[in-house]
Queue: 4 jobs
Job 1
Amino acid sequence: MSLRTADEYRAGLVDGRRLHYQGQPVPDINAVPDLRVAVDHAAIDFDLARDPGHRDLAVAVDPDTGEEYNAGYRIPRSAEDVMARSHLIEAGTAAGGTVVTLIHEIGTDGLFALLRVLEGEGREKAEAYYRHCRDGDLALAVAQTDVKGDRSKPPHQQADPDLYVRVVDRSDEGIVVRGAKCHTTSSANGDEIIVFPTRAMGPDDADYAVSFAVPANTEGLSLYVSGYGGGGHDAFDHPVSSKHKLLETLTVFDDVFVPWERVFLCQEPEKAGALALTFVEYHRFTAVSYKLPLVDAFVGAAAQIAEMNGVMKAGHIRDKLTQLVAYAETVRALTEAAALRSRIGEHGIAYPDPTTTNMAKYTFASGFYKAVEWLQDIAGGLLVTGPSGADWDSPEIRPILEKYYAGASPAPERLAMMNLISDLTARDLGGYHAVLAVHAEGSLEAEKLQMLRSYTANHAPRAIAYARKLAALD
């Protein structure tokens, strides 16, 4: 086993993978400033494991060999393990300025799902692949969301059969796949990509019921990196996003060969839905865990800017701050409750309570835009009318800015806090956070559906039995 250094991680990304960004091929991801920001951000995960202050949280020990490995790979066996995983995700995201690193988190969500759902030969292959990733301290991405085409039609009825990833050939050596996934986070700067079905499948969709893993430099695999959020490198204007960023790709499989030892599910539609939903059980918990630094930042920034503006004593400001506190602490309490209510699933692997996990995610997502409104209302219009970094660096202009932008606090402090809030809520990163709140890890409707489904299966019998007892029906 090994705990890789950040530099070893960076060097491993120069491996001949086919990257495209802003219309151009990218031979070395480390050499493009927009992309290097994301690489350095992801490297936080490797630094965290070597930080004495986080060692107990970020490093696990194999009980059989005594060897160390990244704690993101620890298979949860209890509620305590699930809670520790949440704390690790929160710590990494806090170090990343409210932006999750998502190179150990999402991949292990996928690995845990494979280890729980699969049986027989499929599970043996998943176990071997898990050890390969853990022992190499690999950075993983998960490609689940197909491009889908006409959403009213299942995969096999699409006008273009490649709008869902599918099996186009199979032999004694392996399978050949074709199609595309989108919204694939961290694939451009990951070592491996795990592919999952995006939905439940019927018998006619058997070719699309496939799960496998490939290195990012596999022949026929092309990664088209989204240009969203590029160019914000001025630390004055973009105090968070100039240093912290995720990359998303359109992930295209053009007749990619996958050897059988890396194929976990092939043309088995009856298992596709269970695998997709089990991954979501873990990944939505990851989602609410990495939202905690962001909601804390909202509360802290709101309190600070209210003081700096000199309006903390105003009743409506205190009311908005109270609402922000209630929002942030409700999301945190539900996240912790999901861990505390963890269940033990197949093969003794623990998972967070799905009802409470989806309640936490729904509470965060449905309240996000109101929280942004409260924070922006407290801060004021300087969020979008303030000076630029070039103005601030100008010897002639800066004295004027310091004179006229002072409030209850000096202008440098007040503008720094304004720019933090603007970066988080009004600029590219703010837009990214807003879309993630609604769509990432599942939509609001998906969360409501899963809340009801999980409650009906796991909690409703208790409530129904009590109501029937009170009504003297039993």
Job 2
Amino acid sequence: MTVKSGYLPKSLNTVIAVLLLMMASLGVSGCTTNPATGKQSFTAFMSPEQEAEAGAREHPKILQQMGGQYDDPKLAKYIRKIGLKLAATTEKPGLPYRFTILNDDIVNAFALPGGYVYISRGLLALASDEAEIAGVIGHELGHIVARHTAERYSRAVAANIGLSVLGVIGSAYGVPSDVGRAASFGAEAALKGYSREQELEADMLGVRYLARAGYDPTAVIRFFKKMAANTKLENLKANRTSTAANDIMATHPRTEKRIRQAIHLARAVSIKSPRVGRDAYFRHINGLLYGDDPTQGLRLGQQFIHPGLGIQFRVPAHFTLYNSPTRVVARGSNTKVIVFDKMDATKARSTRDLGSYIKYIWGKRLPLGAVENIRINGMDAATATATVNSRKGVREIRLLAIRERSSRIYRFVFDMPSSEAGRMGVELRRTSYSFRRMSPDEIKAVKPFRVKIFTVKAGDTVKKLAKTMAVDQYWLELFRVLNGLDGNSVLKPGQKVKIISTG
């Protein structure tokens, strides 16, 4: 619909004129043509120089939030070599590309503007050859070269400018202020992740770079199926149906149909002898840390042990443990949650009375009942319970603080529906009293999980090798996922497979 200026109030014409002058002064006069996609790209509010600055600024934060960089120089050099080989085939080969392996067991990969590409060691454990990893890196390079972050940022700024003008117009013409706030929330939510078109572009460019570097473009389909199978297994283990927010299937929502479409759009030429690099890849990941890093604690079924801190505890059956650098979360059915963390050492030293801390500092916003001082395996502790109304209904929240030593206070939060609190009482007390110090011999005996490459021998079957996996549940499903096998797969003597072992 075309609106002629004569139909608008004079003052409104003035507002629009001011907006146009503002946008012109900010350089929002048009779009640029992206050399990778050949399309017009709206990146007016973030220059390539600003992209580089943003990447450099955010890089340390990423390392801090995601477990830091995985300490394996040879593997890091190998991944960097693959990354630079692909980067050289892009439309921006001169960027100072940086490839980082994150010390994180979650299967994920992402990129920051300015040439920063991140791959988790969890993703490296899932992949089975160099071409699959090249496919992941190529996709992230596609996001960088196509300047998708600059597009998202520029559109967000433009949306906010528009919303500011909407607020001015609203004030002059009686539009409720809530309209502006709702629009702002909607714009922010819409621009949080890559759009479907941007994901398709990254797939298309990634396939292009794979082909140019001599890799088989269909490796992206093979690895996509592995990612989908892994997500299905993780959902099964956690008794959930949706994808976790930090899973690669959530951050890069794709389908096999769209990947095939990307291959078609990329018009990848047929490669006579495409590189797969399975043996080379297996040599480099043999011994790769799998699951939790012992320095951040280990999950062993229902048990959490931290050899560095020398403590351990156990959660009830049917709870799934999730570990992060700052806390441990156990989730059960029907929104039952247990959260465990450690107080800052300085605050722990200054906390004299645990009961007062729970009542007046930690739980001051909760309608806590009487504080009970208790002893747990020779350590002072205090606990209190509150009943609260929430969006999830009436819930019972119990706080527990344990002083393990003068500089260490550990905390548990038990949060569940009030209707289940009584039934869970005994199990939660068992969890509380399972917290204890580890002996030196127990600490010494802790061995992390690692990926080991095994050569199949005559008589070996999927089930036989899966039983050797150092996991206590879903060992058969995990073996199949790690090796890209289905229910009908048969192993052949000489074939190399991944297993999980300790040591």
Job 3
Amino acid sequence: MIRWLLLLLGGVLLGGIVHLATIFFLPRTATQDAYSRLTPIAPVNRVVALPAPAAEKAVMPFMDPAFAEAVCRYDLASGPLKLTVPVSNAYTSVSFYTHNDIAYYAINDRAAGRRAIELDLMTAEQRSELPENEDVTAADLLIVESPTLTGLVTIRALAPEPALMPIAQNIVAGATCAKFNLPSKSD
């Protein structure tokens, strides 16, 4: 009886190890991740609207046809980026992902509380180069620190009715993702 329990325990333990190894290493070996799929159609540091999903094919899996979507494939090696996204009356969201598809920040129009979502995207090293200004508060300047130099920013605008899709498409088309120069600490 003890032999069977040890055998069962060993099988469960081995199965758990195989399961965890698969969960952790399979995403790193996948060749068709989001970054790879978007590389041919999205230039670096520029917002590109994604085509509407069709039943037979979509740029990305599980795209919602009620949303107009755009993406900015970023590279912070040459400096930080300023992201500006106009907000819609229905719903607008911006999500940030590393090169390995790990989400690290998201904001929507309700949280931004403005007519546009404006933020600066930079690495921790680039942020440390910013001058300290006591007059500027966190509410005045939204800074997102990227854990990696490359990644994706996805922009989504809801069209609550199919007739409102052109408005949602104009919202994501009005988004910008452009490089800017850091002010020096001596300024």
Job 4
Amino acid sequence: MHAHEAGWAHAEGARGPSWLRLPSDVNHLEPLLWSSTARKNAVGALEVGGVDLRDLVAEHGSPAYVLDEADFRSRARAFREAFEDYDVYYAGKAFLCTTVARWVAQEGLSLDVCSPGELTVALRAGFDPRRIGHHGNNKSTPELRAAVEAGVGRIVVDSFQEIDRLTEVTRETGRTACVMVRVTAGVEAHTHEYIATAHEDQKFGFSISSGDALEAVRRVQQAAGLELLGLHSHIGSQIFDTSGFEVAARRVLTLHAQVSRELGVTMPELDLGGGFGIAYTTQDDPSDPAQLATELTKIVEHECRALDVPVPSLSIEPGRAIVGPSMCTVYEVGTVKEVGLDAGASRTYVSVDGGMSDNIRTALYDADYSCTIASRRSDAVPVLGRVVGKHCEAGDIVVKDEFVPGDIAPGDLLAVAGTGAYCRSMASNYNHVLRPPVVAVSEGASTVVVRRETEEDLLRTDVGA
């Protein structure tokens, strides 16, 4: 028997998950879910960075990603200050444009890239290449050559073939490449299967348990033109506590000590990864940077004492935790439909002018989001709603479960929180829909940092007459 691909959307429990509570005020903004400058004004309209989203949509259209500059900078600064003895790498894959790359540099963070395009954007922004790390499990020879010629600070190697390619590139260019070896510690983060990246059965890194990781370190150490910096470990994404890091750090530092003992090499650096979680709904409880820094440092220091090795220079990668909460997406409601469920229950389907082309995460990861009416105050009784997109797919869902005003209607604006990470980055032209702009807001002013696509953009790569 074959299940329909959108069957999860029609499963039992369609009256809403147990954690979703009926709000006493449907206009309320839960501070944990929104950027720090988000507020409802006197008439109930949502303001971010001092900009009324009604005015923003009037000027820039909808849908639109709204990026809170002050919030972004504050979160970047919080990680830099909490992890003051670490190198903190912003995840370019979460969201990157030249403006954001400049903000990252100005706030004193380093930058991870994992494609030639991301590297190009970083260099265009004037980012110091020595503060760039280059990831990827299948970096081509031209890609490695571009990274080496740009002088990136570290290349995280992921396969024996890549070590050979990089060695050849350094021979051809006469340059030295600084290298970290990505290892899998056999620790599976408590998260979605597709974003848990340290268990053995997946594409990233060299296995510690099989001996491949030690062999990779040996080959890098022996290769002319490669400078061994250390080990890189990443156990997943959307992680709320440090328990998984404790096991991973023990295994990675055991390998670190083994390299010193057997190869006579003391590697100067260690990257613990990161992937720290954010609050998409009220069921999420993320840790603050200071707490994470204290706990991670304690773990590393304890393991180093037990192994009798000096603490290496440490780096982390917060992942979505910086940009994720700093952005929301504003949509205009197009249609509203009440759908009867079992036992006399019903759900209100709210269709907006975007969908899975600007936020694929709900369909891809079964991700949860929260939303609020953004254009007015409502005194109507809350009703159970589902926010859906305009695409020709049953699984085109933006917010699976949320209480919305009972009088929500076409023309209302709806804002979805926590869309800064992986929404614009993973956006597509499905159904030939144009991707929305990213509009930065600060101190009452809005600035387009990534413009809305046009039909000319859409047709530019279509070479048919």
